[in-house]
């Protein structure tokens, strides 16, 4: 994350813009109807998963021009993997739907190169994912990976996930995808209202959005939204058992850890939406870079 950009982005997202016109209404020229925002919608759960269908319905209902370019099958946990084969199977099951037999990164790459060949979309939205993508989960997330693939090509991107820190219960998570969609529309509208030079986000900056599951049925409203950092905790830990035949059984459990102050886990635990600025690279912050430079000063081959 590029720390120098967090404060301006925080102001953009969390402060209500006050726009006062000094031109009388009668004298103001009539504005041309705005072209609908063009969105490439992807995910890592598969092009026909409930989360992407819910978000597609909510975004189109809000008036956006949405095209789905998403994996043909479930690609959860593939992270930023892409372009690992020399051929790619692509299906076109509907006029606004493309299903790519690859990772979310492959889907976004194909979408930007072919589906949106004439002009890049205004925004790539990846999600909504079944389950959260906070802390280390975000680092390995295909949902976030789809957003990163767009950012690498200079296209603004938002990763969206729905879930809490406990084991996911399907019905409440699916129910919570509806308020997730509502919040995503509000977020995009806020970005539109503060857009500079036509860009919805500063160049090289994306957003990783996590919406909590509020209430026992998941239909509750989040208590607010917080601009967060990515919590450094691992969240999951694998345990390996030797089967004695060259194979190992893998059991994955949740590692309980205190939430970092100001982090995405803390926000989700408090029933708040977490919004974490992300970048398409793994550069360390300025202070970490300087500290490493001091540590390695004078090193020679």
- Taken from the alpha-carbon principal axes, the silhouette is globular
Helix content: 25-40%
**For the residues shown, what is the average pLDDT?**
89
Q: How is the main sheet built?
A: 9 strands, mixed
CATH topology assignment: Stationary-phase Survival Protein Sure Homolog, Chain: A
Strand order of the largest sheet: 3-4-2-1-5-6-7-11-8
Write a brief structural summary.
The protein is of the alpha/beta class and 301 residues long. The protein has a single domain (34-296), classed as Stationary-phase Survival Protein Sure Homolog, Chain: A, CATH 3.40.1210.10.
Describe the structure.
This protein is α/β, with parallel strands linked by helices and 301 residues long. It has a single domain, classed as Survival protein SurE-like phosphatase/nucleotidase (Stationary-phase Survival Protein Sure Homolog, Chain: A, 3-Layer(aba) Sandwich), CATH 3.40.1210. Helices cover 30% and strands 21% of the residues. The strands form two sheets. It has a nine-stranded mixed sheet, sandwiched between helices. Strand 1 (38-42), helix 2 and strand 2 form a beta-alpha-beta unit. Helix 3 (104-115) runs parallel beside helix 5 (142-152). It is globular, with a radius of gyration of 21 Å.
Secondary-structure map:
Elements: H1 6-14, E1 38-42, H2 50-61, E2 65-71, E3 90-94, E4 97-100, H3 104-115, E5 123-130, H4 135-139, H5 142-152, E6 157-162, H6 170-193, E7 206-211, E8 225-227, E9 236-242, E10 248-254, H7 264-269, E11 273-278, H8 286-296
List keywords for this structure.
single chain, 301 residues, alpha/beta, Stationary-phase Survival Protein Sure Homolog, Chain: A, 9-stranded mixed sheet, two-stranded antiparallel ribbon, 11 strands, disordered N terminus
